[in-house]
Write a structure and sequence with these properties.
heterodimer, A: Rossmann fold, six-stranded mixed sheet, globular, B: elongated
Chain lengths: ~230, ~400
């Protein structure tokens, strides 16, 4: 469903060109669970941003669900993000003045979904992620793990086909990180496509398919369960 | 995105940043209140003048001796030749015009008014019975000057309320005699207290028959003739008739000035309206300042909320939605500021009205509409730039910085 061909991404930092992604060819099937690993600056996040349509490649072609999305306008890309992609970030990125429930509601508000429908979905998501007690709390009243659970619930609000997680456990202790990973893997088990960027080998090893990136290129692409 | 959701989103932002919101509300409020208060002072002054003129009489045409060749200077004062006097017969001749309803000749002087041992200097008006109707005077007691041949110098007078009090105290006034100069007059009426009317306090005057005043001041010359036209439409024909009658009576010389109250009033009205607009406009500058403040605060807000904007982009907000969110926020702030300003302006108007009760302070309708509208328009205009900046933010960069 995700097909990248010859993707290049070049940043200009000062007068210097930084090749963030070089000639990336990647095919991700429906329902795959994939981890992207590699040292800092190897282009993991850049790749995720391209897949998530937050960034545009300098060259190459990106096909999502059979549709070429490379040349779409900003607003069309926004619509694709809204319908098909859910993001989970290292720093949660919850809106501080909104409650947990309101944060979860946000994508549905942007999509113009009717309020009654939204309330039903929020209730279900709060229940699914064990947040019923925390619905009316603001992010500063929540623990890191709870914040990330709100963020996952928010990413799931529009029932996207793809979940992109950029260092989802990077800001959490080991135990909470494990919990969060189990929640994300639950999404995958339910049929969603999950891509996780991490530099924690233990987290990366959980995925069925493991990409390793070095210097903006895919260094290795392993499949199969590694867990003993 | 539904518009109700858009408003709710903006409303939460407005509530979320309290001090920022208060600051903007204050700036907008002061701007709007200033426009309203200042323009209501201007409008109050205008209405005050209009009312004062109204109290002088309606459909009034005033005949003055002498011809004013240059506008603004008093006729007969600045020109070299002495104009021919206006006489009582001139005044009576004006009754021939079909456009004239009534008229009152007027002689004005000052006299030493004495009653018993008490004495004081007071303005003395010589006129006829019709003066009361023309000048909308009302009596507290007794009757006005008797109708009849104005050439008869009957020894009667009507006095102002304050003068009556000062000369006679609590005693009955009607039927009492008083002396003006070397003549005696019987008080037949007392004017109702009316107060100041364009610099002339009717509470302190003595009104005597015009012929008596002529004798008293030893002059034939009238100070002016007050003419009331039959209707508003008859003012101009009356003016023409008067000029013609007097020209014929004065051997073909146009040596009187005929002014209409409406012309004077219209001039005052125009000047004061322009003045109100001008000061209102000055106050509106504070609205522009408030607009710039909104722009500043919004720009800071865009920087502070970079991560949020990036997140909104990531979860599917279009650039248009981001722009709309910021503009809606500006509109909400402007509406709040305008409401606050309207309330404060109204309050200020009431307070000023308490301090100066004689002037009818009211904000003109155009200020009530223009001030909030200007507030909203400026704040939206000044929010456009920050909103566009927010919408153009690169989501990757916005999200990468904490």
């Amino acid at each position: 469903m995700i097909h990248l061909a010859g993707i290049e991404r070049i940043f200009r930092v000062g007068g210097e060109e930084v090749h963030a992604l070089r000639a990336i060819d990647l095919e991700i099937g429906q329902g795959e669970y994939l981890s992207i690993m590699g040292p800092s600056g190897s282009g993991k996040s850049s790749l995720l941003n391209i897949i998530g349509l937050l960034d545009r490649p300098n060259a190459g072609r990106y096909t999502l669900d059979g549709r070429d999305v490379t040349g779409l306008s900003d607003d069309e890309q926004a619509r694709v993000r809204r319908e098909k992609i859910g993001f989970v970030f290292q720093f949660f990125h919850l809106v501080p003045r909104l409650t947990a429930a309101q944060n979860i509601e946000l994508p549905m508000v942007l999509a113009g979904i009717a309020p009654e429908e939204r309330q039903g979905r929020i209730a279900r998501l709060l229940a699914d992620y064990g947040l019923e007690e925390r619905a009316g709390h603001r992010p500063d009243q929540l623990s890191g793990g709870q914040c990330q659970r709100v963020a996952i619930a928010r990413a799931m609000a529009m029932q996207p086909e793809v979940i992109l997680a950029d260092e989802p456990t990077g800001n959490l202790d080991r135990h909470t990180g494990q919990e969060v990973m189990q929640l994300l893997e639950g999404v995958h088990r339910a049929g969603g496509t999950l891509a996780v960027v991490t530099h924690d080998p233990e987290i990366g090893a959980r995925a069925a398919r493991r990409l390793r990136m070095i210097d903006g290129a895919i260094h290795s692409d392993e499949r199969g369960d590694q867990r003993g | 995105m539904r518009s109700a959701d858009l408003v709710e989103f903006a409303w939460r932002v407005v509530r979320g940043y309290r001090s920022r919101t208060l600051l903007i509300l204050l700036a907008m409020g002061i701007g709007v209140a200033a426009v309203i208060a200042v323009s209501s002072i201007g409008e109050g002054a205008r209405l005050y003048v209009v009312n004062q003129f109204g109290a002088l009489g309606t459909h009034l045409v005033i005949v003055l001796p002498g011809r004013s060749e240059t506008a603004g200077s008093m006729p007969g004062v600045l020109i070299g030749e002495t104009p021919r006097d206006l006489t009582l017969d001139d005044a009576l001749a004006l009754k021939r015009s079909p456009s004239v309803r009534r008229l009152a000749p007027l002689i004005v002087g000052a006299g030493d008014v004495r009653a018993g041992a008490l004495s004081r200097e007071a303005p003395v008006l010589g006129s006829t019975a019709e003066l009361m109707a023309i000048r909308h005077m009302s009596l507290a007691q007794g009757r006005f000057l008797p109708a009849g041949d104005p050439r008869l110098a009957q020894p009667v007078c009507v006095i102002g309320a304050k003068l009556a009090d000062e000369l006679f105290g609590p005693r009955a006034v009607l039927g009492e005699w008083l002396r003006i100069g070397d003549r005696r007059f019987r008080v037949v009426g007392v004017l109702a207290a009316q107060g100041q009317s364009l610099g002339f306090n009717t509470d302190e005057i003595v009104i005597v028959p015009v012929a008596a005043a002529q004798a008293l001041f030893n002059t034939e010359a009238l100070f002016r003739i007050l003419v009331e036209a039959k209707s508003r439409e008859q003012i101009v024909p009356a003016q023409t008739d008067i000029e013609e009658i007097l020209r014929v009576r004065h051997e073909g010389k146009r040596d009187v000035t005929v002014i209409t109250q409406d012309a004077v009033l219209a001039t005052f009205d125009r000047i004061l309206r322009a003045l109100t607009l001008a000061v209102g406009g000055l106050a509106a500058i504070s609205l522009a300042v408030a607009g710039i403040l909104i722009m500043n605060v919004m720009l800071i807000s865009v920087t502070q909320r970079r991560a949020e904007i990036g997140l909104l982009r990531a979860i599917g907000a279009t650039g248009r939605q981001i722009r709309l969110a910021f503009l809606t926020e500006a509109v909400l702030l402007a509406l709040g500021g305008a409401a606050l300003g309207l309330a404060a302006g109204k309050l200020g108007q009431v307070v000023i009205g308490q301090i100066v009760p004689s002037v009818p302070f009211t904000a003109p309708w155009w200020a009530l509409v223009a001030a909030p509208l200007t507030a909203i328009v400026t704040s939206v205009l000044f929010a456009v730039m920050p909103a566009r900046r927010a919408a153009r933010l690169d989501p990757v960069q916005a999200l990468s910085k904490r």
